[in-house]
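Consider what follows.

. . .
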Amino acid sequence: MSQGLGWEFFDAIYCITLDSRPDRKEAARTQFALAGLAGRVEFLVVTRDEENPERGIYGSHQRCLSLSLAAGARHILIFEDDVFFRGCNHERLMAAGRFLRETTTWDAFFLGCLTSGSRPTGLDGVVRVRYRCLCHAYALNRPFAERLAQEPWQGIPIDGLIRAMGRDFFALRPMCAFQGLISSDNKTVWLDWLRTLFGGLPMIQRGNELYHNNKKIFILLHLAAAVAIGLFLFARL
């Protein structure tokens, strides 16, 4: 079913899910079917690390990488089970696959994340990004996956390790994968509360993407507003 939809670029596709949350596994399965991924995703069912959830998440992502590498995968796509899709444009996804095949130095490609900046690549559907965090939908090139798979747990969450070790990060434009509003193991209570206050991760992710992909426009609008206010105040003197 995924043939001709862009997903064929990925040799191995995994989704991490907890054995204590079969409802999340079924919700993810429904999302994958809607996105044209029925039958393509292998679920890695894990037990929550009660002592250190972040360590458990780290180990689960590494397990996906190890299994994929052992199977000879070149391009590895990993999801977390609270992922959902909005606006999945398969033509852009196929074009992104062609772009990545020709870009041999890429480390990671994100279908959804938070960034600290982005810039055009020459292809409308792909941007180069400065990755910040979130690991609910991302792909790794084999050389980078091999490096990550060998790193022992040192108290750094998986998104922090990707950010620290990687250099060439790209993302689909617009991103199509979002993380659900339910709480996740790799969030502290106060951070979860803060994200909910600002509309939840889906709204934060979309706002972050719109800002960084259109930063010049936002800056010009703010400058125009500042000039307009200045002229208005000057006229009233």
